[in-house]
Amino acid sequence: MMENAWIIPLFPLLSFLFLILFGKRLKEASAYIGILFTLASLVYSILVLFDRFSAPTFKAEGVWLTIGDVQLTAGFEVNQLNALMLVIVSLVSFLVHTYSKGYMQGDDRFPVFYAYLGLFTFAMLGLVISPNLLQTYFFWELVGLGSFLLIGFYFYKEEAKAAAKKAFIMTRIGDVGLLIGMILLFWQAGSFEYDEIFAAVEAGAISSTMITLTAILIFVGAVGKSGQFPLHTWLPDAMEGPTPVSALIHAATMVAAGVYLVAALFPLFTASETALMTVAVIGAFTAIFAASIGLVQKDIKRVLAYSTVSQLGYMMLALGSAGYVAGVFHLMTHAFFKALLFLAAGSVIHAVHTQNIEHMGGLWKKLRVTGPLFLIGTLAISGVPLFSGFFSKDEILIAAWAHGNTVLFWLAVIAAFFTAFYMFRLFFMVFAGEARTDMKNVHESPSVMTLPMVVLGVLAVVAGYVNTPWFGTFLGDWLVEDNHALGHGHIEGPAWIMIVATAVSLLGIFLAWLMYGKRSLARDWLTSRMPLSYNVLYNKYYIDEFYSLTVVNGAKFISSFLRFLEVFLVEGLVKSVTGITSSLGRLGSKFQNGQIQTYGTVAFVGLAILVVIYAFTGGYLK
Amino acid sequence: MNLTYFLSILVFSPLLGILVLSFLPKTQESLIKTVGFLATIPALVLALIAYFQYRAGAGLEQLNEKVSWIQFGDSGQMGNLFSIDYELGLDGFSLIMVVLTAVISTLAAIASIHIKKEWKGYFMLFLLLEVGMLGVFAAENLILFFIFFEITLIPTFFLIGKWGYFEKENAAYSFLIYNGLGSAVLLIVIMVLFARTGTANIDALMAAMNADNPQLVAPISENMKMGLLIALLIAFGVKLPIFPLHSWMVKVHVQAPPSIVMLHAGVLLKIGAFGLIRFGMGIFPEQFQSLAVWLAVLGVVNLLYGAFLAFVQTDFKMVLAYSSISHMGIVLIGLGALNEAGIQGAIFQVVSHGLIAALLFFLVSVFYERVQTSNIQNLGGLAKGMPITAGFLLAGAMASLGLPGMSGFVSEFMAFLGLFKEMPILAAVGAIGIIMTAVYLLRAVLGITYGKALRDFAGVTDMRKFEFVPVLVLVGLIVLIGVYPSVLSEPLTSTLETIMLGIGG
């Protein structure tokens, strides 16, 4: 099975090509093409995963481009991480393809939507089986294209246009970091191949400064893609895209690519304590920073977006604390429960046609399927015991503690409290109490939308049990099998960590219930008591404003300055060139005055000059 | 197959079209356009035959042609010295340039359907221009190269000045003055070389100049070599163009008819890069090495200067003009790196930018034809009325900003790969250009296609029939090179080896 794993990304590519060519004629039947092709990918991915359980890593490559003596290769590799990612990506993609059939119904550009989904899925699957950095970068950019196209799907909306542009540019800033890091690494290790890079690192062929530099540059790419501070601002804006897209790209798969990249290059990062520390600090800071913004947002999708940023920060913290398994494990559980939350949010939006949670309320009775599923997702992300998020978050906290990152550990605990609070605030505001606006025509979504949610709901509950301190750390042991560079399958930590984690999440839930469920605490106590901090949070720490003031204006200033230069200096040069030419011409024409004496003089002077030159140089200009 | 006159037929085949056109009445619009288009086909077919034969293993030497042409002095006394032969030949690099020229000429001939007046004169000049371009790349000696080089100037001048937009005369004169000065400098270099070595043959020159004990008619000092190389840099720098010699080409991009800009941006600018590589690097390898740092610096300046200026333009054609300047910076960056990756990247960029610029300018002509403006502020929401055009425009922008899977990525990547090896700090500064390219292209393209529709698109038709041909061919080639770059790199192998041998790499 594994030797043919290259075919997995090709199914969605075919779907893309087919729908771009014939989508117009197929209309909404396009959905079936997309669903069938991703189903094929899913089935094949699962087979490959099972194959990988019993067989060693498989890798195949061929020459892609020759530069002098250097041969750059392309191919694919199925190791543990890749096999797992294949299943996660193709599963979520398949479910989102199915869900979209209901959600996007009636849209004029329905086939285009499915075509883009196919393109994205192709790129994402290609990304996770790449055996070298160059190919990873190749697909890394293509998933960015897919994301860009889908964020801007409603191209006629100015907000969608701005968001798509922002997403592309912000991630490209990160990508340049990745590109530079990768090229520098290439000249050090002599290859883009992961295993050859690791071999060079292990053999000590690369100086430690260079390892730190390249690792951090590559991490800059991950920061951009995974919406980490300070390149996070595009991700909340990306919510302008259709909601299924948010679930697939901006929650479960592409934004996790940054985490995947750090995980795939884990031996490089562990070779530099500074690089690891950078990852951990950025991760922990992003986790609490985004969670604090999430506390006060009013748009259902934006709350979820900030929670995604925050959760990705958790994963980075895990990897930066040498917790390979914890990071990958949380990537997996997060993919399920966050995709579930987004699809459920989509179902809510589908029903009530608004995204403002202040206009919602009392939907529990009306959305009898979406409500409980949303609750499951909320419980999972809040880290309530027995749900998947509980186990993976616990692993992360233990890793941070065990690595000695005490401050970061407590930051992560506070962020966990925030998470529980804002997620239940969201839940209570949407589902509890009474409807705050007219909600007569609210219907539960069709089963084509609810069924994918049910699948994700089940996974959000059970996915954690593949790696628990109670029943066994199967996932962890398998992930690090045969590869000592990845650390241990399970890190032992003090038992109180689990208790503290449970306590803070229950506390957060309780507080949210007091304020938004039972309402014994006024909802606006923060707003009224601390208007300044509320405003800072609500305006996302004014980071967008800061960027537009500095970076955007900076670029505009440089451009204006150069335009000034162009107009006065370069155009001046042009003017002088044309001026000299035409005055020479005028001078020349003055000699053409019809007087034979002038002609004679000119000829004589010219001849004299030539003779003088000849006399001095012997015919050659030295 | 008799290959004796293969290249001559290839180069001069468009003349047949001129001959036929001269017998046609000038009112027969569609007939003239058809003949004009058909006249570009033989060169295309022959170029493709040569390419595929070469890929199949046939040597390019069998295409060489040589006829004794001009002899100075007494041949008995001078031997082979001071003779100028009519000699054509190809190596991997020039073969690729010939194919590029033939492809873009055919597509530009299709794009010429949008020409509104005096088709007969237009196509005659157009075909003459094609002869010049093909000849430049096939010429085996400097004199012949120069003659073909000059042949390209005159038709271009008239094509801009007569069929262009509002300020066409101004643009045409700008073009002529700058390029005229450039070729004057080039002529001086050629004459000095010819006088001192007694040969104009490029291979012979390369051998003579780089031999340990050169057998020259008269000595050439190291300083003079440097001077000649700098003169070459100026001559070809005008063409490329290198900052600050670029302003003429901005005018041409904006004022010339799009079909001519396709040729101009697609092929004519590339003569600058071709000349730098072939003559600069080939004849003066040592001097080139000592100038490499400056070339790389100029490349980064070009890249950033063009990118930042493209960011504030309001006319899409201006954006593309500055984008061309910026992208030619990548050629210089690759040449400045002076290693395999860099040089290969530079050559890739020459081809890639040729295809991408042709694509984008064709798309400009497609929508300009329908909405009569290319001003970004007057456009918006074009994807509503012309979804296919808008889609291809976005694809062109993606290719231009170096999206992997398209040719722009491969060239940009290799050029930077090369420069990072030699001058990492400078390369890192240049990498800002990669970000800025995305910024200005998205600003421009999304400004045109996305957002609220500023106008009623009722009655505006999307791309039709023959308009698909250039777009599909160009996108196909761009993706082909992006996905399977060996189509380009393999024919280049031997050329690169020769160059690397010259610079002792």
UniProtKB/TrEMBL annotation, chain A:
Keyword Transmembrane belongs to the record = yes
NADH:quinone oxidoreductase/Mrp antiporter transmembrane domain residues are 130-419
- Give the transmembrane region(s): 6-22, 29-50, 81-100, 112-131, 137-156, 168-187, 199-224, 245-269, 275-296, 303-325, 331-352, 373-392, 407-432, 453-475, 495-516, 596-616
Tell me how this protein sits in the membrane. Answer: Multi-pass membrane protein
A single GO BP term for this record reads: ATP synthesis coupled electron transport
Q: Which GO terms describe its cellular component?
A: plasma membrane
Nuclease as UniProt keyword:
no
- The residue ranges of the NADH-Ubiquinone oxidoreductase (complex I) chain 5 N-terminal domain are 64-114
The record's listing under Gene3D superfamilies reads:
1.20.5.2700
Q: Which Pfam families match?
A: Proton_antipo_M, Proton_antipo_N
The similarity comment for this entry is: Belongs to the CPA3 antiporters (TC 2.A.63) subunit A family.
- This chain belongs to the protein called NADH dehydrogenase subunit L
User: Which species does this protein come from?
Assistant: Cytobacillus firmus (Bacillus firmus)
TrEMBL record, chain B:
Pfam families, per this entry?
Proton_antipo_M (PF00361)
Boundaries of every NADH:quinone oxidoreductase/Mrp antiporter transmembrane domain copy = 139-433
- Please state the protein's primary subcellular location: membrane
Its Gene Ontology cellular component terms are:
plasma membrane
Entry's Gene Ontology molecular function annotations:
NADH dehydrogenase (ubiquinone) activity; NADH dehydrogenase activity; ubiquinone binding
Please indicate if the UniProt record lists Isomerase as a keyword.
no
Subcellular location per UniProt equals: Cell membrane; Membrane
| Residues making up the signal peptide according to the UniProt record | none
Annotated membrane topology is: Multi-pass membrane protein
Please give the start and end residues of each transmembrane region.
Answer: 6-24, 36-54, 93-115, 122-139, 145-163, 175-195, 226-248, 260-279, 291-312, 319-338, 350-369, 381-403, 423-446, 466-487
Q: Which GO terms describe its biological process?
A: ATP synthesis coupled electron transport; electron transport coupled proton transport
Alphabetic keyword roster: Membrane, Transmembrane, Transmembrane helix
What family is this? Answer: Belongs to the complex I subunit 4 family.
> What's this protein's name?
NADH dehydrogenase subunit M
Q: Which organism is it from?
A: Cytobacillus firmus (Bacillus firmus)
